[in-house]
Hints:
The chain is an alpha/beta fold.
Amino acid sequence: MESKKNQVPLELLPWLVVHSDGKIERLAGTEVCPPGLDQETGVLSKDIIIDPKTGLSARIYRPDSVQPGQKLPLVLYFHGGAFLIASASFPCYHTTVNKLVAQANVIAVSVSYRLAPEHPLPTAYEDSWTALKAIQTVNDPWINDYADLDRLFLVGDSAGANISHHLAFRAKQSDQTVKIKGIGMIHPYFWGTQPIGSEIKDKARKQMVDGWWEFVCPSEKGSDDPWINPFTDGSPDLEGLGCERVMITVAEKDILKERGKLYYERLVKGEWIGKVEMMETKGKDHVFHIFEPDRDEAVEMTRRLALFINHVVV
């Protein structure tokens, strides 16, 4: 008979396995690549420590071509991975942010917030808030010399888009002077107990997303916890979203697309004072651009996001 400590009570394949003795075995998503000059995009990057006490870190990016005295928009980027996977140095995200920085001509700070289940929620939100506050005062020459803090954007994919949503409310409610110009939400990770739209027929993936969220954030509210459902009881009204502009991208084959569309509709029809736009990529699934960065669809999505950041109307 297999011993209890070797039993496998939970598999989140292909990413990780949690054994019955509590040991977490990460199978993928732990790969890292070094910072430096990216020859393809002409973007420089380096790593910094934001909070020595917790080990919170980030990777800063800037175009190698930026000139002294030139001020560029500042993007605070939050990677996806269901709050469980990846980091700023994960090769797919390093490539993605390099391409965004080159296309949009921005300074970017990609945050390596701590991951669940070793660091349960709301750790990721707290780390991200710490990073948002830190970039206002950090003594780093790339930010001090080249970043325009009056053009601060939060950009994230999947869980990172979720984080951006919550930070925008917290920034508006905070006594500190944290002004967010806009949010770029790529395939936002929002959910709910009751299925909507295409979720109704896709029972298998509905159960999968339910299960992942319950693992990350076990609570009595399940998928109607305000952390994951921005439309449930206890969630702040979108009228209070603390930014001027929002761009939401969704993918046609993504099970999460319905929530992104609903978020867009609520902003359009609600009392929020701002401008919102949405882009849907046909024939693609969740965060396809991370794994296929050179596909035409990924290039176009990055181009549109760059136009949004630079306030160019399509």
